[in-house]
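Annotators were shown the component list below and the corresponding predicted structure, then asked to write short factual statements about the assembly.
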Amino acid sequence: MKTNGSERIRVIAFATVLLFLVLTVRLLQLQVLQGEKFKRLSNENRLRIEKVPAPRGIIYDRNGIPLVKNSPYYCVSLLPEMLKKTDLNAIAKFLNIDAEELNRKIENRKPFEPIKLKGGLSFKEVAFIEARLSDYPALIIDVEETRHYLYGKVGAHLIGYLGKLNPSQAKRPDFKDIPREAFIGQWGVEKLFDKTLRGIPGKRVIEVDALGRQLRLLHEEPPVKGDDLYLSIDINLQKAAEEAFGRRTGALVALKPSTGEILSLVSRPSFDPNLFARGISYTDWLRLIRSRKAPMLNRALQSQYPPGSTFKLITAIAALEKEVIKPETTFNCTGGISHGRWSFGCWKPGGHGTLSLYRAITESCDVYFYLAGKEAGINSIAEYARQFGLGEETGIRLVKEKTGLIPDKAWKKRVKNEPWYLGETYNASIGQGYVLTTPAQLAMMISAISNGGYIYEPRLTRIESPVEPVRKVKVKKETLDIIKDALRGVVADEHGTGYAARSTVVDIGGKTGTAQVISAKRRQQVPEALRDHAWFVAFAPVENPEIALVVFVEHGGHGSETAAPIAKKAIEAYLSPKENKSEDR
Amino acid sequence: MKIDRRLITNFDWVVLCTVLFITVVGIMTIFSATRPLIGGEQPSFYIKQIYWLFIGLVALALVVSVDYIWLSRTSHIVYAVGLLLLLAVLILGRIGLGAQRWINIGPFSFQPSELFKLCFILMLSRYMSMIHGTMSIRNILIAFFAFVFLPLLLLLKQPDLGTAVILLLIFVLMVLAKGVGRKVITLAVIIALISVPFVGNIIWDELKDYQKKRLLAFVQPDIDPEGVSYHINQSKVAIGSGGAFGKGYLKGTQGPFRFLPEKHTDFVFSVFAEEWGFIGSLFLLAVYLILILRGLDTAKRAKDEFGRLLSLGITFMFLVYCFVNIGMTIGLMPVVGIPLPFMSYGGTALVTNFIAAGILINIRARRFELFY
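Structure shown to annotators:
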């Protein structure tokens, strides 16, 4: 029995050695074979790499007036590692937030990330919380930067706003280095020039413990501030233009004819980009996108309507260039013409009598252009319209642009599978019927007419040296001079339709237009929602123009009544000397 | 009682030295694991452990000085007291880590299950020593229902699953060491095969959520790295990052940075392995192996069956605790929350283990004949 016992003990000793061998092999595997991997994991545990957002570049207008500023934004957050040891009700009470909302935020948290409880704290609140932080060790106060839009709604469509990196952007390589919580440009210039404005985020390597408490700063790379951006717009012009609109909806696009710089881009109604600065609330967002007046629609680029009488300039140029009329050519307006069973009236029921091109433009005689258009033909009209940039995107990349529509015989055949009728030429000649343009396109057109036929790429940023035009329209200089002379008459002559835009400060050339909403005759008696849209294209000064613009007023009635005064105010705001202009540059 | 000269000449210095070595290493590791990172005061865990070491040494000396036959005679009483303490913990015990394991006596927390394992081994040794030859099925059943069943129930009620499983394991090992017939083995294998699914289900249902999670995490450590398997993963990171030569004493980060839970108790080996590397771990394992082999040798040389079984039981206890604890820290075993003998912080366990070491020394010293 005794030998049996010691035999058994020997077996046990052998088994023990085997068990220890198993432990040894496992230790060998973990420590020697996989040691490097675990060393890395251990460092990753201990070291937290924080990205420090770079201060965003400031956006200035063309005269160096700042349009935005970065202000500190205080936020109180909860460390998720401390959750178990924290009385959430006490915190909800202390911070004066809803306990249910707090629980919802905790449920939706991301692992290892502080849970933001309350943002936008005032200095007073920060001081209050900071003084009591020792009672609530789970709370931390962060300071971030937030964008403040100094002019609020003014220029919001152009300047845009910031928003959080959305999930689809987070996957794209160009946003790889952006901290997950960072705000980036999501609209307007903020989005288009995000890379310029963004800067390079800095890096902080911090030693932390498992509770996420920071122990030591091991390494720091400071962020590089984003580049400042000088826009082409003149904020005083922009402000004056937006004020001139009052409560009307519509758009205004002003260009510098010699460079293509966008001096102003208005879309009314506007929205307040400051709502977006820290992430827009759901209710605010719903209010914006459900509003009947569609404030998020950029009417300068995304609304297209018949250009009305402003298009007569194209008809006139086509007829002159094709030499089917001369400036002296006269037609007799008896208040309308008939074609088969249809009749085409002039806006002036009694007719204009016998008139030449100059008066046809200044008084906007429809009959003259019916006949001129008939002589030129729809294809020639379309050819010149396209040369001036109508019917195609202008290249202002703020939003997805509407292209407008310049019809011709081929288009009719392709889309409607029907031949072109003369009546349609009549309609097109006065900018009605199928013809559609956006305000931005008409701005390009009037800019090219005013500058001698040069088409420039429209620019959102201030140019520092002269630029080459993209192309020159194939129109003789004399033709454009004839048109410009008549446009001066539109505003200057007593019978001119643009008389309302006449300025004592500067010599303005322009053309009114009306986009029919319904083909009713008595437009003054219809409700506003059915009233016609008003156009006015203008430039000033007539010799050597410094500004060319288009004004579009939704349901504004006739262009001369609502659009022309807005154009005048905008032009005067830009061209008249201002006190603050000198001090800013 | 006078101390015989031969007690000193036959004194087992190997056991005392290994045990002291491990305890001192343990105190150093506890110091490192609990050290504050920036400023702050060093927590007093290591000081308390030093106190416990001295209490343990005194207990060891007392145990060595009495003939272990006396232990055999009083084993019923010792066992009964142990059981009563387990019962008391259920009634008085305070809640800690989801389980009731302590009794507070003044400023001390006393953990009866740690002491009970020794009472249990003592009782089993006493009972088995009275059996001649191998154990029959009847013997095993009597032993199980008389001495194992009730404490198992009490421990599961606490619930202290780890200690319960380990007691069961020690029981099985002692039965095997005592010797069983071929019939018993065959029967045991058949019963085991049949009952595993049922018993498995019953046990599974009885487990607390955290226990289920630990088992699941052991089977699939990658399912949720921040949750259940966090303990295992962080322990592996600690040990693995030690590499071949370790990060150096007081240079470990996993423990003091609090990535390791229970860093000075159940996961003290991870902290040690991080700082001393594969070389250090191998050395520590070797010291444990020496202690265990020495215990087996003592069993072989014991002058009577009680001494043989008692030293075997104690050695099994060291072996099982050592293997399960280290196995847990390196991801070979599920997280059961039992301490590493002599290393982990904890007074009751340390003193108990010193008493156990004292018994080993006692049995070896008195291996030749009666002293009186």
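Statements collected:
1. The first strand of chain A starts at residue 47 and ends at 52.
2. Chain A touches chain B at residues 1, 4-6, 8-9, 12-13, 16-17, 19-20, 22-24, 26-28, 30-32, 34-39, 41-42, 45-46, 111-112, 207-211, 215-216 (CB under 8 Å).
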